Amino acid sequence: MSKQHTLFTLSAVATGIIFAGQASAIEPQPIDLGGVGLVPTLKISETYDDNVKEASGIPGDEERSSWVTTIEPSLTLAARERLNTYQLSYSLSNSIYHSSHEDDHTDHFLRADSHMEFSARSRLDLNAGYSKQQDTVDSTNREFDEIGNKYHSTNVGGLYGFGAQAAKMQLELGANHEWRKYDNNRDSGSLTREKDRDTLSLVTTGYYRVAPKTRLLAEVQYSDYDYTTSNLDSEDYRYLVGVTWDATAKTTGTAKFGYQEKEFDDPSKGSTNGGAWDVGVSWSPVTYSTFSLNTGSNIGEGSSTEDFIDTDTYSLTWSHTWAPRFSSDVGYSLTKKDYEGGSGSSNAGRKDELDSYNLSLNYNMRRWLDLGLGYSYKDNSSNFDDSRFDRNQVFFNVNMSL
C-alpha cells in the first residue's frame, strides 16, 4: 500500500469520529508528516435559540432568546502499522451567546485511541481522554446556578476481543475508569462538590454465531460509583441477552434485553431494579435511504440532588440522499425521565416526557466544504410546572477542511 493511500485511509478513520452521526461529511486531504497524517477541520455554526435556559415561561421564570455562535476547530493525528492504527485528536468548542454572555464558554476535548491486532483471534482497543466542559443552565439546575456547572473529567479504558471474526464463538472484555470533578458552584444550593465521583465500569460479552451474519449474545455490565463527599455511592449491575446481525435483509442491528439493579451503600437508600434494554436497528430499503430505530432503558446517576434518574429513550431517524451533493435528515425522539429519591430534593418525584423533532439539510459543496441548515423543536411536559418548556432552534453551519 502506498504512503498516499495509507494517509487517505487514516484520514477517513480519523474523521469518522469527528463527523459520526452526520449524513454528509467532508473528505479532508491529510497533511503528510513523515508517515503520520494530520487532519485539521473547522466547523462554524450560527443558531437562533428562543429559550436558551429551557425556562417554563411562568412568572419569575421567563424565557430568554439569543443568537449563538459556535466555533469548533479540531486536529487529528493518525498513524498505521500493518493492522494496527493509532489516533490522537484535540478539539474545542467555543460558544458565544450574544444576548446572555454569562453563558459563553469554551469546552476542550483530548482523546487518544489505538487498535492492535496480535493475531486473527486476538485484538485490543485502548483509549484515554480528557475533557473540560461547562453546562448551560437548564431546567435541572437553573434555580441554583447563574453560571452553568463547570467540570473536568479523565478516563482510560480498553476492550479486548478473543476469537476470529468468522469463528463460532467470540468473547469481549472491557473496562473503563472515569474521574470527574466539578470546578464551580461548589458553595451554592446545587452543591456540585457532592457530584465529584470516580466511576469504574466493566463489561463482558459472549457471542455465539448461529448464521453467517447473525450472532446471539449474553452480556454482563458492572459499574461502581464512588462519590467524594456525598452518600450516593452505589454499584450497578446489568444482565442482558440478545442478538446482533449484519446486513441481513437490508438491516443491521443489535437488540439486547434484560435486568438492571442499582444497590446503594447507604442502607437508608436501599436498592432499585427493573427491566433494561438496548436496541439499535438500521434498515436501508435502497442504498441512498436509511431508517434507524434506537431505544433503551437505564437507571442513571442523578442530575441534581435526586438519587437516580430512571430513563427510557426512543428515537427514529430517516437519512436520505436526494442527489450526489444533497441529503437530508429527519428525526423524532421521546425521552421519559423519572427523578427518584433524595429527601427534600427539588427534583424528587419529578416526571418528564421530552419530545424532540429535528430536520437538517446538507449540501456537499466541495470535497473540503459542507453546508448545513436545520431546525429543531423540543417540548418537555412535566408534573412540575417550572420544569415544562418548549424550545425552538434554527441553525446554519459550515464544515471545512484542507
What's the pLDDT, averaged over the residues? 89
Main sheet makeup: 18 strands, antiparallel, barrel
Structural class: mainly beta
- Total beta strands: 19
Query: Which regions have little confidence, pLDDT < 50, spanning 5+ residues?
Result: 1-24
Chain oligomer state: single chain
CATH topology: Porin
Could you give the order of the helices and strands?
HEEEEEEEEEEEEEEEEEEE
CATH architectural type: Beta Barrel
Task: From the alpha carbons, calculate the radius of gyration and give it in angstroms.
Answer: 22 Å
Protein architecture, described:
4% of the residues lie in helices and 65% in strands. It has 402 residues and is mainly beta. Residues 1-24 have low confidence and may be disordered. It has an 18-stranded antiparallel β-barrel. The protein has a single domain (40-401), classed as Porin (Beta Barrel), CATH 2.40.160. It is globular and about 65 Å long. A hairpin with a 2-residue loop joins strand 15 (308-323) and strand 16 (326-340). The chain has one helix at residues 3-18; strands at residues 31-32, 37-49, 66-81, 84-97, 105-119, 122-134, 150-162, 169-182, 197-211, 214-227, 234-248, 251-264, 271-286, 289-301, 308-323, 326-340, 351-366, 369-382, 389-401. It contains 1 helix and 19 strands.
